[in-house]
Amino acid sequence: MRQSLFRKLTNRILAEQELFGEVLDLGGEKKSEYHRFFKGDFKITVANLDPKAQPDLLLDLEKIPWSIANGRYDTILLINVLEHLYDFKNVLAEIFRILKEKGEVIVVVPFLFYFHPSPRDYFRFTSSALEKLFIESGFGEIEIKEAGSGALSCAFNLLHRFFPEFLIGVMGKICIFLDDVLKTLAALFNKKYSGKEYPLGYFLRAKKL
User: Fold this and answer.
1) Are 196 and 125 a contacting pair, CB within 8 Å?
2) Residue 204 and residue 71: Cα distance in Å, rounded?
3) Structural domain that includes position 88
4) Which of 1, 89, 171, 180 has the least CB density, counted as fewest CB within 10 Å?
5) d(CA 43, CA 24)
6) 165-188 and 151-159 are packed helices; what angle lies between their axes, rounded to 10 degrees?
7) Are 93 and 163 within one domain?
């Protein structure tokens, strides 16, 4: 299956994450590939409004409040969903409510990414915006990292759908390598370029305090 560079790099980060207990995947699908990347002993419940996603729980994320009990889940996943939610602040408040004490939320969002309505595409969030949003929503111990960065990686990610599938893997690796070269040269010649100015997207993990 054709994957963007952002998706591939996101999956690498998710494969480093350990989950436990009851996990709620908001806006995911029963067959979401990233489910199999997580480590740990856990059970995933999928919540989605679209029956095609084969959800365990039919849920419209923007119809607040949700019919889910307080402190129900150990971990909540929000993978490439936040940008599709117009009322995202109330969604974050609901996530906080239904998490257990010390429960965690794992979020992935695109940044330098093409328009992708599902059914709507509203926002892009910087790392600064994500940190502030989650602090204001009551979360702490916030970890944020780029899921890919660099001008060439970003350009390729935006254009990957135009290339033959058999070239995508190789070209992605070449772009990552050339971005590393650019970062090294920028440091050597004292240029203001670290690659972080061109994030493909972000991974966030935060805890309910």
Assistant:
1) no
2) 21
3) 5-148+197-208
4) 1
5) 8
6) 160
7) no
Query: pLDDT digits over 25-60, tens only?
Result: 999 999 999 999 999 999 999 999 999 999 999 999
Same domain as 30, residue 111: yes
Q: Read off the tokens for 81.
A: 């969903």
92, HSE (Cβ side, Cα atoms, 13 Å): 21
Q: Are residues 95 and 164 in the same domain?
A: no
Tell me: do 54 and 157 sit in the same domain. no
Task: Indicate whether 182 and 201 sit together in one domain.
Answer: no
Q: Are residues 36 and 116 in the same domain?
A: yes
Q: How many domains does the chain have?
A: 2
- 135, two tokens: 């602090």
- pTM beyond 0.85: the answer is yes
Asked if residue 77 and residue 12 are part of one domain, the reply reads yes
H-helix segments, the chain:
5-14, 88-98, 127-136, 151-159, 165-188
pLDDT for the residue numbered 51: 94
**Per-residue pLDDT tens digits for 162-189:** 999 888 999 999 999 999 999 999 999 9
